[in-house]
Write a structure and sequence with these properties.
heterodimer, A: 499 residues, alpha/beta, Alpha-Beta Plaits, TIM Barrel, 2 domains, eight-stranded parallel sheet, three-stranded mixed sheet, 16 helices, 23 strands, B: 244 residues, Pectate Lyase C-like, eleven-stranded mixed sheet, 3 helices
């Protein structure tokens, strides 16, 4: 037990209610509980994931924040003091999981959506057709027709696109960061809901090749699990340059998470760290990026190539370079994007919000007349259908959800993904934990989430008086800002409410 | 079959190669190749493709099985993330060779550029091998996670370094053999230098015999000089970097 740091949480057992069934001992993957005549919690180890609370049949467990107070200091909140203590003790880089938890303003919450009243009729999506179908990929500059056999035909073949039944996709999360059962849940749900999931950079387990039509495979700097068959397994290939939670940072999947299965798909020995270099060492320029994009296109029969970047200061200029390099999709990951493991300081202090990056990129691509050449996927802080609607109005073709998808699988946002101890069986490779997540159950919950969001998006569209998500795309006139400063509104291309 | 690549756009050339291999051609010869990129990218099967001339960047990226013989120099990005197959380059080759390579062999007769063999991998019997006859630039075998990387330093003038700086930086798997000496100051902090033992020399020499047969180098002359073995000191070089 560490005496310089107080426990973050207090675990209390109501001993009168407790039947001593020991479910809590079995549930806790962080070793909080022991048993000697009665259940004894060690609060020091608790991460407040609430697995035990949910599993306790008697509802006998409560977890509180540690009520002990330290003298308040606005410049030194307890969270910062704890970081210093931890580093003084270990000398290590602070690690964390999930997205940025600092109280930055959430711009989505300062945007409101328009609706029809009196002068233009709104539409009831329950009674009238409402189109959510979305195609991701390059759209031709113009369509030329010719008459063959008395029928008009397109002169040139259309570029391959990804067909989505809902403009929400599952964000790439690697097999390694998350469990095979989590991957299976995502794959099954993507198939059922007519969307796609991303493999992340950990290769594709052979059991998931059947879900290819609903898969975007990823090629990242570590090139884990990347081979010809893999590249051709999905509907598109994503080159991951950066991630919103850790822009400019590579990945270290710790050796603890490299078991036999991960070892096989990543081609590294059991127990070794899986190191993804910070940059792709074959990409030091836009020209190099173009080279990899076209190498992949040549190897896959010209499947769409997505390029995923973290949103950083010059994101608009970078995005035009990406589109001119030949990418069919630009995937923008805002600084609130999640992660299985990232250095805390990087996660909390590097990158820019998705709302601003998205607006800036959409603007720039329009100004340069190349917006049709690539679709934009917005990610990193999409929490609800309202966020998705606002992102689409700001210019996104589709949104990607990672954290929301994990929440659907049971995640309680305890932010301990990097420990490999996920009590919900999502972000772990330990067999006794991964089996807690039943892929069928997971897929059902993900499907439920997408169905609900789909209905809600249709409600928004109906209120706006449009019958297709296409009509909302980039329609910033349908958004207004509340409590945003003039410059932010200018970047967003949104008027203040009341105008 | 023979394809004349003179003035043919890379996309058309690669389509012709893919078509030929698909139709069962066991041997394909490409004449007058001059900078066409992406040749044999993602190509599978067992065909042998002879390339006369200078192929462009990303030759054999993601390739999975075929054999390529380049009679000329090669440029950057050869064998990028290659899975299986064999490439013989009877000349020099450029930067970023064998990046993330997962299997197969890349034999280069002459010199190689910067960032060669970065993040090569290996798993059980699938061991990628790169042998370069001449000298190499900086970052040789950076982040190396598996496989075999050999540098022979043939034809270098006295006093010229065999490799650049940052050799094996971040290396955490696999092994390198260098024929000659490297200054430890030019090596990453993560690697150690040892003399190879008999077993290791036997494994190395079996590869070198094949290499010499393929590239025309004199095996006995190569074996006259001493080799050093460069290995990762830890499979988890950054295991203690973090506070949990």
């Amino acid at each position: 037990m560490n005496r310089t740091m107080p426990p973050e949480f207090r675990v209390k057992i109501d001993q009168e209610k407790c039947r001593k069934c020991k479910r809590c001992l079995m549930s806790c993957s962080f070793g909080v509980y022991s048993f000697a005549d009665r259940v004894i919690p060690d609060s020091d180890k608790c991460v407040a994931c609430n697995r035990c609370v949910v599993m306790c049949p008697e509802d006998a467990i409560t977890i509180h924040e540690n009520p002990n107070v330290y003298r308040d200091h606005p410049n030194w909140p307890l969270s910062i003091r704890k970081n210093v203590w931890k580093q003084a003790e270990t000398g290590g880089v602070l690690l964390t999981g999930m997205g940025n938890d600092q109280p930055y303003p959430i711009i989505f919450d300062h945007l409101v959506v328009d609706a029809c009243q009196v002068t233009n009729p709104s539409i009831d999506p329950l009674r009238e057709p409402m189109e959510l179908r979305t195609f991701l990929g390059r759209k031709p500059d113009k369509l030329e027709m010719e008459m063959t056999g008395g029928k008009p035909r397109l002169k040139e073949k259309l570029p391959q696109n990804i067909k989505l039944e809902i403009p929400v996709i599952f964000a790439p999360m690697s097999f390694g960061a998350i469990s095979l059962n989590a991957h299976k849940s995502l794959a099954m749900a993507a198939k059922e809901s007519g969307t796609v999931y991303g493999t992340g950079e950990g290769g594709l387990h052979e059991e998931l090749y059947d879900y290819g039509p609903w898969t975007i495979v990823q090629c990242a700097s570590g090139r884990f699990g990347v081979h010809s068959e893999y590249l051709n397994a999905g509907v598109a290939v994503e080159i991951k340059i950066g991630q919103g939670a850790k822009p400019g940072i590579g990945g270290h999947l710790p050796g603890e998470k490299i078991g036999a299965e991960i070892s096989r798909t990543r081609m590294i020995p059991v127990g070794t760290d899986a190191l993804s270099p910070a940059p792709h060492h074959d990409i030091y320029s836009i020209e190099d990026l173009r080279q990899l994009i076209y190498a992949i296109k040549e190897a896959t029969g010209y499947k769409p190539v997505s390029v995923k970047i973290a949103c950083v200061h010059n994101v608009a200029a970078i995005a035009t370079g990406i589109v001119r390099a030949g990418a069919d999709i630009v995937y923008l990951d805002g600084f609130k994007g999640g992660t299985g493991a990232a250095p805390t300081q990087i996660r909390d202090h590097v990158g820019i919000p998705i709302e601003l990056a998205l607006a800036a990129v959409d603007d720039r691509l329009r100004q340069e007349g190349i917006r049709n050449q690539a679709s934009i996927v917005a990610a990193g802080g999409i929490r609800s259908s309202a966020d998705a609607v606002k992102a689409i109005a700001l210019g996104a073709d589709a949104c990607a959800i990672g954290t929301a998808a994990l929440l659907a699988l049971g995640c309680s946002l305890c932010q301990k993904c990097y420990t490999g101890n996920c009590a919900w069986g999502i972000c772990t490779q330990k067999p006794e934990l991964t089996r807690r997540l039943d892929p069928e159950w997971g897929a059902m919950r993900l499907n439920n989430l997408l169905r609900a969001w789909g209905h809600e998006i249709k409600e928004f569209l109906g209120a706006l008086g449009v019958n297709s998500v296409e009509s909302l795309r980039g329609s910033r006139e349908r958004l207004r800002g509340v409590g945003l400063d003039a410059q932010t509104l200018d970047i967003l291309g949104v008027k203040p409410a009341g105008r | 079959m023979t394809i004349n690549a003179k003035g043919v756009y890379y996309r058309d050339l690669n389509e012709q190669v893919r078509e030929a291999v698909k139709n069962g051609a066991a041997e394909v010869t490409l004449d007058n190749v001059n900078g066409q990129r992406y040749i044999a990218d993602g190509l599978r099967g067992k065909a042998t493709i002879t390339i006369n001339g200078t192929p462009g960047n990303d030759l054999a990226a993601f390739m999975d099985g075929p054999t390529l013989v380049v009679n000329g120099n090669a440029q950057d990005g050869v064998a990028n993330t290659m899975n299986d197959g064999k490439i013989i380059i009877n000349g020099n080759a450029g930067d970023v060779l064998g990046y993330g390579m997962r299997g197969g062999k890349l034999y280069i007769k002459g010199d190689v550029g910067y960032r060669v063999g970065i993040h090569m991998k290996g798993f059980k019997s699938q061991i990628p091998v790169i042998i370069a006859g001449g000298a190499a630039g900086d970052f040789f075998g950076e982040y190396m996670a598996g496989g075999l990387l050999v540098l022979l330093g043939i034809g270098r003038k006295k006093g010229e370094p065999i490799a650049g700086s940052y050799l094996g930086t971040g290396m955490h798997g696999g092994v390198m053999y260098v024929r000659g000496e490297v200054d430890p100051r030019d090596c990453g902090a993560e690697v150690g230098i040892l003399e190879p033992n008999e077993e290791e020399m036997a494994e190395l020499s079996s590869y070198l015999k094949e290499y010499c047969k393929d590239t025309g180098h004199d095996y006995d002359r190569i074996m006259k000089e001493k080799f050093i073995k460069i290995y990762p000191k830890s499979s988890r070089p950054y295991g203690r970097l973090y506070a949990y």
